[in-house]
Amino acid sequence: MADSHPPEPLAPQTRWFSERHVQISLPTPGDVARFFRTLASNPPQGLVDLVPGAASLLLEFDPVAAADDSLPARLRDLLAACASLPDKAPAGAVAIPFCAEADFAPDLEGLARERALDPAAWLEEFCAATFTVDFLGFMPGFAYLGGLPARLAAPRLDQPRPRVPAGSVAIAADRAGIYPFASPGGWRLVGRTPLALFDPAREPPALLAPGMTVRFALVSRSTFDSLGPVAP
Amino acid sequence: MSSLAIISPGVQSLVQDLGRPGLASMGVPRGGAADGLSLRCGNALLGNPVDAPAIEMAMLGIEATFDAPTTWCLAGAPSHATLVDAGGTSRSVPRWTAVPARAGDRLIVKAIRPGLRSYLCFAGGVRVPPCMGSASTLLSCAMGGFEGRALRVGDVLDINAAPPVVAPQASASLVEWLDATLRPGILRVVAAPDGQGPCRDALHALLDVPLRVSGHSNRVGVRLEPPVAIVEAIRGAAGGRVASIGMAHGAIELTPGGEPIILGVDHPTTGGYQVIACVIAADLPALGQLSPGDVVRLNLVDRHQAWQAHRALRAMLSKELAIP
């Protein structure tokens, strides 16, 4: 039956998520990115995948490697090594052109009204902010961007939209994000970018990577159109 | 090389291999065959690499013609398959058997049941342009596989050339073991951190009770409908999570409404619901065979039992099919 074995100590802030997954809790997105880089460049034996989250990193192992008695000790050593590494320099800066015409930004007016701003002032604050890519997840190329000014923060929609168009620039809670593909979604839409956030034929396929800084630049509809439509 | 012309595409037929491991940090789902065990066994019987691309058919099979001699094998859930030659003579074809088709032969695969998915594997494998190292179709992004979509009438799929197969066939004991492994009626799970903490009572309420597979299930997730009294008891047990966490194939999320969702092969890489348990690796093939209306029970095991189950599965594949 379950729980018949005593819990095996893994490492601080580390716990079994399944018999083949180990979840490490980490304080900041910078820590997640640092542990990710270290583990990706020096993967422990049997590592299948690494999945960053907002404040955690999930390690997937081949079940045979996960069952190896030496795993807890090796993980402890590896994580101790990760913890002592310095933060790497930021991974570059990207400017995201986006158009906030009404049909691209159905939630902008309501967001501005809630803050007693007019939409242009809301956008001005949004474009003045410098965002950092915390991690990618949810769908290919979707970057969770930290750095949304507290005054602009707003919860996600109570009822998700059945279809958010590709390229939509959106906010939810204290984050911004860009939908690389059309999908159902509950984030509030404030504009649309013509850039392809994810292209499997490109190397790397994702435009954004953890640690990059991102700024948004408002463009007109004609500039948006001239930059070309995004994929699907 | 030969090709396969699709006359009838079934309900949802997709080119799949074993997916794209290692790309989750870019938000790319693993994908691949929902029942990877059947794909591997079908390929092994043909002498293919176990991850050769094949056609995953759900609920209903395809009808298609071969333009040149091709050896193929039907793997996975049972379905009635016939091969009709140019003269109109038809013969029934068993699963888990490598079968030679001649030019002009028409293959008809009918309803798939019990179970959900059958795999058409071909000696040499289906030939599609690789996308990020895999032939898997990712429907949500219209990527990979055959033009990023399910097969349609009129599609023509290329099959790689392959050395002749010496008519291998799964042993009776392997077929019996596969059927039991793919349709066990239970899924063994290990408790996830939330299932040992805030959602412990909810997890235990969901163990060993009949859970109906919802019609709103797909490759992204299998939705389970517990008995009403249990939904009422566990509703609200899981609050919405604030921070997104990395997710896993087989992770069982609990929505605030009391609905358990088991994440499938195409699951989003991160998620925000609480995770009460994970289906053990050895039972993921059975997860891929759950069909709407099926009733399944969750059995709690510990990590050591999960590892033991995985070792037993590997030992069987090694002994019967020399799969490492």
Please tell me about this protein's structure.
The complex is a heterodimer of chains A (232) and B (324). Chain A is 23% helix and 27% strand. Chain A has helices at residues 29-41, 63-66, 71-83, 108-114, 119-128, 221-226; strands spanning 14-16, 21-25, 47-52, 56-61, 93-98, 131-136, 143-146, 161-164, 168-172, 175-178, 183-185, 188-192, 213-218. Chain A is elongated. With 324 residues, chain B is α+β, with helices and mostly antiparallel strands. A 7-stranded antiparallel beta sheet of chain B has the order 7-6-9-4-1-12-11, with no helix packed on it. Chain B has a 7-stranded mixed beta barrel with strand order 13-20-17-18-15-14-21. In chain B, a hairpin with a 5-residue loop joins strand 17 and strand 18 (260-263). At the A-B interface, strand 3, strand 4 and helix 2 of A face strand 16, strand 19 and helix 7 of B.
Helix content of chain A: 10-25%
Number of strands of chain B: 21
In which order are the strands of the major sheet of chain A placed? Answer: 5-13-6-7-10-9-12
* First-residue to last-residue Cα separation of chain B: 28 Å
The low-confidence parts of chain B are: none
The proportion of strand residues of chain A reads 25-35%
Outline type of chain A: elongated
| Radius of gyration of chain B over all CA atoms, rounded | 20 Å
Mean pLDDT of chain A: 91
The major sheet of chain A is characterized as: 7 strands, mixed
Low-confidence stretches of chain A: none
What is the tally of helical segments of chain B? 7
**Quaternary structure annotation:** heterodimer
Q: Give the percentage of residues in beta strands of chain B.
A: 25-35%
Order of strands across the widest beta sheet of chain B? 7-6-9-4-1-12-11
Share in helix of chain B: 10-25%
Task: Write the element-wise H/E pattern of chain A from the N-terminal end onward.
Answer: EEHEEHHEHHEEEEEEEEH
| Number of continuous helical runs of chain A | 6
